[in-house]
Amino acid sequence: VGLTISSDTLKLNPAINYTGTAKITVVVSDNALADTTSFTFKVINVNDAPVIVAVATDTTYEDTDGKALKLSASDIDGDALTYSAVSDTSGLTVTISYDTLRLKPVADYFGTSSVKAFVSDGQLKDSTAFSFTVLNVQDAPYAFDWLSTASDSINITQSNLT
């Protein structure tokens, strides 16, 4: 615990994140006589928010199991932490198991999503946002039944094939 004296004011300054007690002894003197008094100064804990580590932009391919990303955070108070996450699109399934974030694209989805991961100590929380891109995979062509008579005339171009 640091302290400063200005005129007749004693100011006590505990260090950041310090909790505990300190015995303070004050001595006053007029160059002839002195007096001493002591007291206990108690600094009580204040809950600090956890801090989540930023997640880097990542990618996967469509029609895959996606990616599992390890989340990391710290809490100066040592509180138990829980994680959660959301995506800005329904094309991405977001699940959390302990500190592992799984991002799995739904069938045939591709594009870029904004994902936000959160950490909470039960009272306070922190978050980080990142981009997650699902890359398009060329799907194989598929056959279809074409029923036609000999007199039908059909123009086929690449644009009307799917």
UniProtKB/TrEMBL annotation:
<dbReference type="InterPro" id="IPR013783">
    <property type="entry name" value="Ig-like_fold"/>
</dbReference>
<protein>
    <recommendedName>
        <fullName>Cadherin domain-containing protein</fullName>
    </recommendedName>
</protein>
<dbReference type="Pfam" id="PF17963">
    <property type="entry name" value="Big_9"/>
</dbReference>
